[in-house]
Amino acid sequence: KGLLKMKGICILGSTGSIGVNTLDVVARHPDLYRVVALTANNNLDRLYEQCLRFHPPYVVLRGEPQAEELRARLSAAGLPRIQVLSGAKSLEDVAVLPEVDCVMAAIVGAAGLLPTLAAARAGKTVFLANKEALVMSGQLFMAEIAKSGAKLLPIDSEHNAIFQCMPADYKAGQSASGVRRILLTASGGPFLRTALDELDDVTPDQAVAHPNWVMGRKISVDSATMMNKGLEVIEACLLFNMPPERVQVVVHRQSVIHSLVEYVDGTLLAQMGSPDMRIPIAHALAWPKRFESGAEPLDLFAVRQLDFEAPNEARFPCLSLAYEAVRAAGTMPAVLNAANEVAVASFLDLKIRFTHIPEIIRHCMTTIAPEPADTIEAVLEADRIARLAAESYVNRLAER
Ligand code: NAD
Ligand code: MG
């Protein structure tokens, strides 16, 4: 073990749900992983605690006043050598440091795109949780991975499950030989059985109360609308080089099977486990080996039964919108993602109703034409235009 080179890790979004779970796994393997950089939007207290525990040489906060405060606290604590940086550009800088071997992309939303892309370009091993970054940049991101030869390991539990069910020598982005379909499981979220006419009045607190997983607020709302599954369909098409008609969503209430791969001979391979993100995180961090994650093993006798059903498109229009976006191609997935980010934030801010979320996204997708997504500038421009369109639609809804 002593002969293995210790790996340096940069965790983009270390204070979030995925970030905290990643540090929990890293702390179990101090002989294999060394924390080089941690970044946060504005959770200064949690980032400070992480500094005391992991002594990263670099940390990044979004705003300079907060960075200034963290510097003061760290010097008072006797840790003045931790470099505290601020701003979006610093996220890219720490992601490509020479002492960084791998980057956990765990920022939520479009804010994670540029640092994740920078890590891919620099040939770092990318642990990808930030699905919005991949949905936006699509083939562009996959091309950067291929060009630099970077390793790409999915963290999203479904995609990690699919990766584990792929042939042993499989690399993300390739087309897998012998695979007929991907079956992407979905819990159905908190509103799977809610009467359709009650959805107009559900609150943010009801929407973020996920039955099986504890996650950040944005992805929890996405799970309630099933846009999370929609983004994951697009993510699966890109990661596994599959057309959308070969990615089937399967509602599976227990969240025990995390997804399946169907082979041409009729074999179905599934990956199962407790709903604990430390399992896919540990899988990616140890790959191609295995190590402990801290998760409880699944008790099949307690699970007893596994249920499956087809998704109801009338209940979950966001799922169909995602299929439409991936078929429209070009910058349309970036438009879908940006409109969704604005709509979800507006719902969490109590500006719009839950059922307005798909309405806003549909409005943006019908009024904005897709452009070729062949440069990062084109992707960022589509993101910008869609946000403007979504915001003005939100304002119109608020005035009603
Ligand atoms: P979260 O809200 O708990 O954490 C988000 C992190 O990103 C925080 O550290 C925050 O400080 C940082 N951040 C937010 N906005 C930022 C900005 N503008 N600039 C810089 N940093 C910013 O979210 P999460 O649940 O951990 O999810 C993170 C990503 O992982 C999302 O893309 C989500 O879809 C994906 N994911 C999460 C889970 C899960 O179980 N939580 C599962 C699968 C995929
Ligand atoms: Mg998922």
Describe this structure in words.
- By secondary structure, this protein is an alpha/beta fold.
- It has a domain at 7-150: Rossmann fold.
- Helices cover 46% and strands 14% of the residues.
- The protein has a 7-stranded parallel sheet, with helices on both faces.
- α6 runs parallel beside α10 (227-239).
- The relative contact order is 0.11.
- Bound molecules: nicotinamide-adenine-dinucleotide and magnesium ion.
- Magnesium ion binds at residues 156-158, 232.
Task: Record the SSE blueprint.
Layout: E1 7-12, H1 17-27, E2 33-40, H2 44-54, E3 58-61, H3 64-76, E4 83-86, H4 88-95, E5 102-105, H5 113-121, E6 125-128, H6 131-148, E7 152-154, H7 157-165, E8 179-186, H8 204-207, H9 217-225, H10 227-239, E9 247-251, E10 257-263, E11 268-272, H11 278-286, H12 300-303, H13 317-328, H14 332-348, H15 356-367, H16 376-399
Parallel strand pairs: 1-2, 1-5, 2-3, 3-4, 5-6, 6-7, 8-9
Antiparallel strand pairs: 8-10, 10-11
Bound molecules: nicotinamide-adenine-dinucleotide and magnesium ion.
N- and C-termini, Cα separation = 65 Å
What class, by secondary structure content? Answer: alpha/beta
Given this structure, which CATH class of the domain at 7-150 is correct?
A: Alpha Beta
Number of helices: 16
The CATH H-level homologous superfamily of the domain at 7-150: NAD(P)-binding Rossmann-like Domain
Number of strands: 11
Helix content: 40-55%
Strand order of the largest sheet: 4-3-2-1-5-6-7
The main sheet comes to: 7 strands, parallel
N to C succession of SSEs: EHEHEHEHEHEHEHEHHHEEEHHHHHH
CATH architecture group name of the domain at 7-150: 3-Layer(aba) Sandwich
**Beta-strand fraction estimate:** 5-15%
The shape is globular
**What is the CATH fold-level name of the domain at 7-150?**
Rossmann fold
Which ligands appear in the coordinates? nicotinamide-adenine-dinucleotide, magnesium ion
Radius of gyration: 21 Å
Extract low-pLDDT stretches. Answer: none
Mean pLDDT: 96
Pathway: Isoprenoid biosynthesis; isopentenyl diphosphate biosynthesis via DXP pathway; isopentenyl diphosphate from 1-deoxy-D-xylulose 5-phosphate: step 1/6
Binding site for Mn(2+): 156, 158, 232
Enzyme class: oxidoreductase
GO molecular function, one term: 1-deoxy-D-xylulose-5-phosphate reductoisomerase activity
